[in-house]
Amino acid sequence: MKHPKALLAALTALISLALAGPNAQAEDGYDLWLRYEQASEDLRPDYRKQISAIAILGDSPTIAAARQEMATGLAGILDKTVTVGTSVPRGNTLVAGTYDALSDLDLDRADVGPEGYAITQMRRDGRILTIIAADSDIGVLYGTFGLLQHMLQGEPIAGIDLVSRPATQHRLLNHWDNLDRYVERGYAGQSLWDWHKLPDYRDPRYTDYARANAAIGVNGTSLTNVNANAEVLTPQYLEKAAPLADVFRPYGIKVYLTARFSAPIEIGGLDTADPSNEEVQAWWEAKAEEIYNYIPDFGGFLVKANSEGQPGPQDYDRNHADGANMLADAVAPHGGIVMWRAFVYAADETQDRAKQAWEEFVPFDGQFRDNVLIQVKNGPIDFQPREPFSPLFAGVEDTKLMMEFQITKEYLGFATHLAYLGTMWEETLDAPAQRTEEGETLTVTDMMVSGNDAYTVSGMAGVANIGTDRNWSGSIFDQANWYAFGRLAWDPALDAETVAREWAAMTFTPDRAFLDPVVAMMMGSREAVVDYMTPLGLHHLMDTGHHYGPGPWVDDLDRPDWNPAYYHKADEDGIGFDRSSSGSDAVSQYAGFLREEWDDPETTPDELLLWFHHLSWDYEMRSGRTLWEEIVHHYQRGVDEVEAMRETWDGMAPYVDAERHAQIADFLAIQEKEARWWRNACLAYFMEVSGRDLPDGYEAPPHDVDHYKSLYFPSAPGNG
Amino acid sequence: MKHPKALLAALTALISLALAGPNAQAEDGYDLWLRYEQASEDLRPDYRKQISAIAILGDSPTIAAARQEMATGLAGILDKTVTVGTSVPRGNTLVAGTYDALSDLDLDRADVGPEGYAITQMRRDGRILTIIAADSDIGVLYGTFGLLQHMLQGEPIAGIDLVSRPATQHRLLNHWDNLDRYVERGYAGQSLWDWHKLPDYRDPRYTDYARANAAIGVNGTSLTNVNANAEVLTPQYLEKAAPLADVFRPYGIKVYLTARFSAPIEIGGLDTADPSNEEVQAWWEAKAEEIYNYIPDFGGFLVKANSEGQPGPQDYDRNHADGANMLADAVAPHGGIVMWRAFVYAADETQDRAKQAWEEFVPFDGQFRDNVLIQVKNGPIDFQPREPFSPLFAGVEDTKLMMEFQITKEYLGFATHLAYLGTMWEETLDAPAQRTEEGETLTVTDMMVSGNDAYTVSGMAGVANIGTDRNWSGSIFDQANWYAFGRLAWDPALDAETVAREWAAMTFTPDRAFLDPVVAMMMGSREAVVDYMTPLGLHHLMDTGHHYGPGPWVDDLDRPDWNPAYYHKADEDGIGFDRSSSGSDAVSQYAGFLREEWDDPETTPDELLLWFHHLSWDYEMRSGRTLWEEIVHHYQRGVDEVEAMRETWDGMAPYVDAERHAQIADFLAIQEKEARWWRNACLAYFMEVSGRDLPDGYEAPPHDVDHYKSLYFPSAPGNG
Known about the structure:
The structure is a homodimer. By secondary structure, chain A is an alpha/beta fold. Chain A has helices at residues 4-10, 44-50, 61-77, 137-152, 204-215, 235-248, 263-266, 278-294, 320-331, 356-361, 422-429, 444-448, 476-490, 496-507, 512-533, 564-568, 592-599, 609-612, 627-650, 658-690, 705-710, and strands at 53-56, 93-98, 117-124, 127-134, 161-164, 170-174, 220-222, 254-258, 300-303, 337-341, 372-377, 401-406, 432-435, 441-443, 459-463, 574-575, 615-616.
């Protein structure tokens, strides 16, 4: 070695490396809203002062879960080990339990109902007691999550005094998961349910799934696809479903299964599934009995019948009530319910598809059993970025309805587009739907909840966006939609902005410098998608099968109502689906005050204009623009909005860990690219059809329509 | 509140809760052998003393990767931040770089070859320098991993002096991943390759995949299923493959693609794929050119042709050499290779399938281009728990061969059975295959490596067991097989026990109290599987299609050689496939000394007995048992062995985190259940066929054969 110093000198230029701690686990989104980061310096000392010990009274598995959650949560939030004494705790104590367990405290009982809870503080003997009280163990668990979330959202707990109880009874996720773990319309990996390893292996993730759901009040999960496989009702699969129910039970979550209507034939050896056949009825009764032997608190059946090729009672000239009631009778002795989907459209029907659910169900109003809920998609077509609410919500008087929202973004950009759906669901839930004789306006929520004997028989279902992806939902912001679904099912009166704020605070940080711009971005995000995909009441413009990307030109599918061209009806004169009284008259399915408003383009709000009306490209809009100009304006606005979202997010780097920030930034870049693609493809097509040029100031699509038509996507996920 | 003290006293009985740190991430197996836990108290002070600064010289992306890895690794192992100075470091320094970069040190150059490295220590001016030197940047990266692994295995570094270089040139994973992310014979979730989000989203997991592979010397990856889809060769997918190659490049890993032989028809618009057709040749040349425009260092093609329905040159009356050479010519100008699989069996062939690969390839010995490697499965049938080595390894003189092992456990218990395959591969690699005229015995490794112009044209492929499961491989112990494949591809002379020990030390702990029993358990695990599935040379007894569980009774499939009954040929008189000179004479494909040994049941080793011979149930074994008794003995021994493995693992709880310990314990319980199932189903069937009872002391199968036949598994994963 001649010049050791020369070598060592060469080291001078070495870049300095940031040495990460070896086990500094990346922030990969797995923890959802159970990310128990320590509270800010502002709050932590006060939290610590007010809670120096925990006591959760009781000994059920649910109470044990509450105890574990509170211990884990507070250890994180307070950043210290909280004493759980074996002797009388000194100091300020958090006490949780049922009112019965807490009877010594002589509390005023709040009206918390079977699942709700109250959180209060009191002073006793110089100590502060923070009290979570409920009528039931599950209420105690919900209250445990409630208090932890309050703290995660950066709220002080001194003097806390709140009561929370769910407005709906059945708050369900619907997993469209096949038994081979393929998830229809799933953009987050495979099904969580590892049927092959069940019943022997209980993946710890099942417990985390239950925790995350209990934290937002979800109390039921339908495990399997509504396009059902009868196999799941065989002993082989019931044996596998049972341990899932066991894992979920302490968290208040019931298991439901999808019932294939033809199961008596496929796995029962019968030659019919006719609901009026006594053998068929007996088969379902015995099957229900068998299921309840495996799962004593089985929730019931979810059924898609006579829809998109699924078998159903109409195959035997029976009606939906005949079918639903047969299943309802089978589960009724065990306390089960049947959720019968209203998403039906007849195979041989050529009239406006938007009208069909109403026409198939309203005639049977009053004929369904008490334990049947008709599960109605929010809009009359199929989870489009914007639809008016389904008229069925105001169409029946003696039929119990439950809402079906789609959490997974089949039509709103899959996993990569940031689209917060709280606003969309709020729009539906708050929509005026009916007027009483006294002139009081009732919303969709009123029709669904109060209109249906209130708490005891109401419900809300969300088609899950959950899979094996590490972050559960395919993207971090898609977690917000799972969260919002749970919160709105618990309380449909919550406003979407509050929910967004709660979620963002717990998922990232309660720092207002982060929350204000990010919540604003979330609040505008769904409207951006509407703008760049289907503005002004347009709908069903997506490409066929996978539903990824634009396909407004598609007009050659077997059924008329599978074609985008059927829905937009664009030609050289105009665009839009005439559902007014001079068209399909779908508008007549709504209450009088809405019928009047929506029958006339002049009074129809812009966002539903082309849903209800076919108008000339030159139709003059409120804005002063022509319809054509307005369409172009919206498509452009959608793209601009995504650009703005990217800018907002770029500025959030100081508040977010590098890993999640980068993934979200990458996904926003994809969203911008795809927003442009939607804009360009749709505008290129409408330019061709209308023979019109773009207004001044708008950039021309870089390709002609044939280019956009030529694109194909064999790897698009989630195809049915 | 009447009795506050009474309430508080009630708290006395509360159980004490262990409060986990909130962000104590569970040990979920994601970190593989890159789990940089701090060294033991015995070693850490000395490591710290010897390395107080790091200098990795150079500025390529590969050197940057080495620098990042070393920084991350040492921060963990030393549990301190290691100085990477911008001025001359004081103290003992780790210096890494190419010999050229380290020329000031005047090192003796070791013969490390293009990918190897040397690690030494020297003293200079009172300082200790630990030196990693190589001829290439990738050698520096391999040496970085080498030193880190040395420490993770609990070895002292004082006086370290080692040289390591790979014995084979091409060390590839073969992913049998479809473009829809379904993995054929995959038991670890979906394909890692998220084709839908590529090229825009580069999942950070791609980088971790590259790190894990570089750490064990894997330098190539074939991304797509050998049952190939021509789509992957279209620009749409090449654009998506390119960023994967970009991510892998700094880690020395080249991307390969599977070429569907009929691609010129399917995506090229030609009406033939005849390799003698000039248009077809030109199409492949242009396609190669196009691929290299996307991926300048593209590795080449992997091809399954004229096998199990795949198209190939025989469709045009051409032979394997014609097909392989055409593709080889297309990639040769760019430095690419073609790996042409020898797993072929003719659709209309009725003779012994074990003989076919030999018969299809030996006639073309010497006719393949220099850049063609014939990729040969370890055995002549199909990755069974035990097969003799493929005779092709000793059947050609002027043809380059590479080994194909199956890492994914298609036939060895999917993800839940613990079966360490290092022993199986060692058995093949070390098997005597040929004798020279001088009487020297050559092993399979000798035939494959030395026999083929040594380093420059040899290779080993492993069918990957990797998917989106958090632990990559479906189970923790399946990670050992990925690890062992890489290590044996780097150095086929390594013994399986050493490799198991390395892996277990890095994956769990280098504590001998753990390593000794666990490595012993691993070493015996594959033989246990052989015993409870296919002892004594039996093979192909699994059920059809999914290959999950036993199906020895299956005899009704279209092709004779798809039926288990074809392979065991059991009847009331005896069992086994006569491949001796009086039978199919497959034995004649082996070298003389093996032919002699294996042609006579008296000299054939027990473990291959029924592979080569059909024998009476009463045939007397070396053990003194009859063949029937010996079969029963082995089936029982397999089950007993799994019971013992469970006991061993139960005792390891003190050394392993709770999460991984529990999953492994759960999987071992499944393995025991399924080992019994295999034993009982096979014995019940052979009892029925042979008309024999079990020997005394063996428990009868609890069900008759019809029960086992009735089982079916619609959710079994990985079906082709």
